[in-house]
Amino acid sequence: FATGPRQDNGVFYEIRTYEVKPSRMKEFVELVSQHFHIRQAHSELVGLWTAELGAMNKVIHIWKYDNFAHRTAVRTALANDKDWQGKFISPALACIEKQHNEVAYLVPWCQLGKPPKEGGVYEWVTFQMKPGGPALWGEAFRAAISTHINTGYTKLIGVFHTEYGLLNTVHVVWWNENADNRASGRHKAHEDARVVAAVRESVRFLESQQNMLLVPLPCSPLK
């Protein structure tokens, strides 16, 4: 009940979320900084962040694949990469409490964006929509996103719709120069009649929403 229009090619994105043991977070981030280049040699990393607000000790990363055969080949190569297994996987597993992954597509009206400059923060918003997929709620959701873009206070990075994982989930990633700019922009948006009307229409299809403020790690292509 979640499938619907998506971009025509086979490209998809794997969203991996790690919950790290609080006592091992510093160690895990150091392992990433030292050895994640080994993983990046196998496939394209879109972004890698730690949660600052809305969650704690959480690491989120997005990987791009041409198709499922591409992902299978990459996972096989990683399993056979002794450097990756020895230098990162073995010590990292002792740091991780839980792992979760999703396969998602960009919605057809969204291209993956880039921030206008480095050094900002990212807002990761997860919407759990009512069953029915984009055929039910797609247009209203798009209108709500578009009104926020038009306010100009934030930069849209991507809108991802899940194919594997919890269905009818949409992840929206925004970039802001800093947390205070985001706060003032949201305040102005809430006073914008166009935003209020569009959001009011979209929330009819909403089950729940979660927001996180993310900070990119140094090796993240999206900084």
From TrEMBL:
GO cellular component: mitochondrion
Gene3D superfamilies listed in its UniProt record: 3.30.70.100
Source organism superkingdom: Eukaryota
Residue ranges of every copy of the NIPSNAP domain listed in the record: 13-111, 122-221
GO biological process entries: mitophagy
Xref: InterPro entries: Dimeric_a/b-barrel, NIPSNAP, NipSnap_domain
Pfam family, one: NIPSNAP
Family that this chain belongs to: Belongs to the NipSnap family.
Name used for this protein in its record: NPS3A protein
Organism annotation: Nothocercus nigrocapillus
Gene of this entry: Nipsnap3a
